[in-house]
Amino acid sequence: PVVKWQLKRDKPITVVQSIGTEIIGNLRPDYRDRIRVLENGSLLISPLQLTDEGAYEVEVSITDDTFTGEKTINLTVDIPISKPQVLVASSTVLELSEFFTLNCSHENGTKPTYTWLKDGRPLSNDSRLLLSPDQKILTITRVLMADDDIYSCLVENPISHGRSVPVKLTVYRRSSLYIILSTGGIFLLVTLVTVCACWKPSKKYVWGEKRQAETQPASEYAEQDEERLKHEAEGIPRSGEHERKNPVALYILKDKVSGR
Fold it and tell me: Would you say the pTM of this structure is higher than 0.85?
C-alpha cells in the first residue's frame, strides 16, 4: 500500500510518503533522521520536538489510483514539570496586612495547571483569597490569624505533575508586634545609655591624666629649685658662727689696729 502522512496547517505539510516501509522521495530537513514508517503504516517520530504538535492525517491506498481511506490523529507534545517552589517575600506577616502574595514557580514544563493547597487541602477563590487567571499566584487581600498555616502548590500537565515543598506562613498579631518593638526599643535605649555612661568618665579620666602629665614637670622643677636654694643657704656661714670659727684671725686684726 501507499501511505501518505500530512501535518494539517493552514497549508498542509507532507511529512512522509512511502510504499510499505520504504520512503519515497526526500524528507524535509526538519524531519530528516527522525521519521520512520512501520509495516502497519504507523508513523514513528523520534525524538519529538514541540513543533511536531498538531493534527496528522494519514491516507492509505492500494495503488496510486485507488484510494482506500484516511484518518486524522491529534498529537500533543509536552515537557515534564520540574519541581515547583513557592516564592514569598517573607515567611512572616502582620495581621490585617493587605495583599500578601505567594507565587508558584517552576523552571520546566508545558501546559501547566496550578492548584494551591492549605494544610494539604485545595484552595479556591473567595472574598479574601484571590487566584490569578492562570492560578499561578495566590493573593491574600487581608491577612487574618486564620491564615497562619502551611501552604504548597501542585503543578500538573498531561504527562507529569509536581508538588512544592510546604511553606509555613506565620501571622503575628499587631499587639504582639508592638510589644516586640517596644521591648527592642527599650533594650536599645538602655544599651545606649550604658555605653554613654561608661564612655564619658573614661574620656575625662584620660584628659585629667594628660593635664597631670603636662603640669607634673613644672612642679618637679620648682621642688628642685627649692632644694638647691636650701642647700646654698646652708653653705653660707652666719656672722656669729664665723667669729667663733676664726677667733685668731679676729684677734690679730685687733692687734694691728691698736699698733697703729
Answer: no
Q: Is 186 helix (H, G, I), strand (E, B) or coil?
A: helix
Count of domains observed in the chain: 3
Taking Cα atoms as reference points, which of 51, 58, 77 lies closest to residue 16? 58
Radius of gyration (C-alpha) of the chain in whole angstroms: 53
For residue 220, the enclosing domain spans 175-226
Q: Indicate which CATH number applies to the domain containing 128.
A: 2.60.40.10
Chain segment 10-47, per-residue pLDDT in tens: 899 999 999 989 999 999 999 999 999 999 999 999 99
pLDDT at 163 over 80: yes
Q: Which three cell numbers stand for residue 26?
A: 526526500
The neighbouring-strand residues paired with 61 are 2, 67
Same domain, 149 and 188: no
Q: What is the pLDDT of residue 188?
A: 74
Q: Is the pLDDT of residue 230 over 50?
A: yes
